[in-house]
Every structure is written in C-alpha cells, then in structure tokens.
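Let us practice reading a record.
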Amino acid sequence: MRVAGILPEDAPNPRVEQAERLKLMPIPVMGLVSQPSLEDTDTVGLGYGQDARGYSEMTASVTYTVWRNPIDRSDPVNLADLDEQTRRAIEDVPPRPRPAWLVEQVQRMRYPQLWDAVRTTWHRDSSERSSARSMLVDHVNYILMNQYRQELGPSGNPWDQPAPALTDLMVNGQVRVLVNGVEVPGTEVDTDPFVYGIGAELAGGGIVTSVLPRAELKRIQIQFTTRR
C-alpha cells in the first residue's frame, strides 16, 4: 500500500476501497492459519488481467507482520533491520495532523514484514501457466527479484542484478499441504538459500502459494486457511 502527497487528517482509509475490490475475487482468499508470530494486518493487494470476455485472472496477495517475541511486543528483537533512510522516514513527524490509519502504517514499518507472503490466484481458463507448479515458480521469482536482488549479485545497485532463474525443474511435486485442515497434494521449492516456497491447488478452483524467508521459518506454522 503506497500513499503519496499531503493527506488531510480525515482522509479515507484505502483499506476500505481495497476490501470492496477484493469482492471481485471469484474464489475465497487464503492465508496462513492464525498464530502468535504472525499478524494479518489486512494488507492485501489485488492484481488482475482482462480481455474481451472480462476478467481472465486475479491474484490476491497477503502481507504479514512478524513478531519474533509475540509475548512482549516491546522487545527490541521484534524490530526490523532498517536502513537510515527508512528510519528517518519513520521518525520524522510532519508538523501537520495525519490520518490515524497512516500513522499506524508508518509505525508498522518498524517491524519485519512478510510482503506478499501468501497468494491466491484464479484463472478463468486452465492451462500449464495456471498450474500450481507454474504459480509457485512465478511467486518465488517475484519475491527474489523484489526483495533479494542485492543478495543475488555483487553490484551495489540491486536493479543491476539479473532476474532470478528459478524454473519448474527445481519444484518438488511430491509434498503434502494442509488447507483448511485437510491434507492435499502440494508442490514446494526447498532449494533456494533465501526463501522457501510451497503451494497447492484449491478444491474450489485456483491456487494458493506461499513464499517465506528462511530466516523466519522456525517461527511460522505453514498451514493455509480461508481468510475471514
């Protein structure tokens, strides 16, 4: 969620409009099961494709806040490792009132975020491109390219790095995944040093995938459930 310009104190929360857009999703949006170390903050992105027949595909992406010590949220271990520019952006309070939702959003930047951690993807027409294997590869590559580019190459400028080259040959299709309490066939990517990926087909149509940082895996229970 990005907000630009000077906002009045009574500016509407964009999550309200976001929730209305999510109603367009033809299938339920999935997330990880409720657990102490993760907080679902209603940060959900929606992407879609259209053609002459209407919507051809939709993807809902859920972001979480990580609490490394959920019992004591004031524990410094919960703080993210921020660069100086981000830290200044959080600490510099403007001399004008801001919407409460914006203040909350800025303060949340102090803590580690699992951006686009869980995706629910729907395709109107089935194809190889819409398979769980293909969707998982796309999701893993997206996270690597946007969050780990600097780690993937020697250049000081992360945008100079080549795009990740994970392919479906690196996907293991012989795993089981819990979805709404039921064990179903799944696929995983367990070969990357930075992230772990897993996904499955949904009984009602569509695909759920999750890409998580290895550094946080020990804190996360990887089971999917329908978001309410």
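A brief commentary: The radius of gyration is 19 Å.
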